Amino acid sequence: MLTLAALVFITAARSITACSCNRKWKHVLTTSKDGQATFGSKANLTTAVLSGSSVRILLTSDNFLTSVQNVKTIGANVCGQALMQISKASYDSFQDKAYWWFLNVCTTGQVHINRYYVGSNVSNGINKDTHEIKWFIRDFIEKAMMQNNDTAISGSITDVMDDVEVGSDIRVLADGYAATMNSVQIGANKDLVVGQAVWHVSQKTVRPNSEFQGNDYWWFTSWATDGTFAASRWQIGDHTSRGE
Length: 244
Known about the structure:
Residues 1-18 form the signal peptide. Keywords: Signal. The structure is a single chain. By secondary structure, this protein is mostly beta strands. The chain has two domains: 2-12 and 141-243, no CATH class; 24-89 and 96-138, no CATH class. The protein has two helices and 25 strands. It has helices at 42-50, 157-165, and strands spanning 2-3, 6-11, 26-31, 37-40, 54-59, 64-68, 70-74, 77-82, 88-90, 93-94, 99-106, 110-117, 123-130, 133-138, 142-148, 151-155, 170-174, 177-180, 183-186, 193-197, 203-206, 209-212, 217-224, 228-235, 241-243. Strands 13-12-11-8-7-18-17-2-15-16 form a ten-stranded antiparallel sheet.
């Protein structure tokens, strides 16, 4: 288990009527195949990501819209993993031998595509492509807690616990990386909040892009309001640990 130097927990507003899930998605950026901003600016997207906004992307050539499960900033660019796709035989049917269809999408225009057969660690290919991409955000309204070296410098654990208890979404931001907590629990002593983010596949930075590594693993992470961080890595499609 590690202790992070800086960590931000970001939540939706405590008012259920103002929860981020009811806020509209905003088109903030379009990037061309060669990574030029043809609408909006990369700086606006970066600011939104570092403020905890959720992200969706539209591959315009395919009219394909999907959500991004985690994002990271790489210099002036933003990259995100969109992992929630299964291969299709047609628009409305799955393939008989289905595979995960993972995307690593960057504002450079690059889309890195990785495929793994469901329930198997056998790859069905990995390749790069370029796309015009529309980027959408949905704002998170409130920054509940920011801490540095285990010391809260704004907000408090109580703020985070209050938001958890009314069902708010929780996101975490550390060192330019942001993800939504898929599960959150308040400690028995009411002095700690811990969340798990489980939708992340191993990747590497190949500037200015982020790409899947190959021979990939799931990267499960646990984040706590005391600044501690834990990770567990498991081979995709196999019960084989790849370390912590």
